[in-house]
Amino acid sequence: MPPPLTPGAAILAATIARRFYVDGGTKSEIADEMGLSRFKVARLLEQSVREGIVRFEIATPNSFNSELSETLRKRFGLRRVIVIDVPDEERTPAGIRQAVGRGAAAVLSDLVTETDVLGIGWGRTLSAMSLELTEIARCLVVQMGGMVGSITENSLELVRKISEVGGGQAYPLFVPLIVQNAQTAQSLATQPGVAAAMKLFDSITVAAVAVGSWDPPDSQMMASLPVHERDELTRKGVAAEVLSTLILHDGTVLPDLQDRSMATGIDVLRGIPELVLIAGGQSKAEAVRAVIRAGLGTTLVTDNSMAELLRQM
Asked: From which domain of life does this come (predicted)?
């Protein structure tokens, strides 16, 4: 490491730093102006940062927790993590969904291009996301699973809202998520509208999906199943679900519902180049960890209450 700058050299370094960082001069231009070598200009710029002559301040958007985001990104090996700080007074289920939905809308607007095929799951946080979405590239929008949830919060309504924002063609699935048996699923899959949507599953390049928690229970799909079936799956150790893919705590995928499901399966999910997991609240921390252990997700959008728990796991 070079010795500390003398007072005279520090003044020169400050002058060079202003020309470089404020005025936008290149190192070659500054060297020519001051009769110095380009190497010396570069060295003085480095020392001006090291000795505090130049100080950088990174301004992050309000509510974005960059420290927690980077910690979780490194811990779980994800491409990106977006942690939204939700103030204590707003930390209700509805408040968390709105905040995380707003963050997810921003991420999706940035990620999606006109050449993408956008896959959409369902969930209350995704419904909140659709209300916050003000712009998105014109692209194909595909419903990744049949309907579950309330009239206003199902995947059919989500696909409609998102395609309206971007103006792209929508491919809905007018079928239930889980049907009675495999034969019914196979029959429904041959219907023209259903077949058109399902044919695009392998072409999905960006997808936004919610994470449902089974332990503790916080899942629309879980609530939609008959009690006896729900109890049996819980006894088998289901921790989470994405669409209708059931996942145990250790990340093992349970195939019990796959032959009756009108949704993308685990192989399709794992093959999507950009899979955005969207979930908030402490109750879903274990579910999110299980989903990541299953090899799902390139991006996670969540809130600080869940992120703090994930950091401790």
From this structure: Bacteria
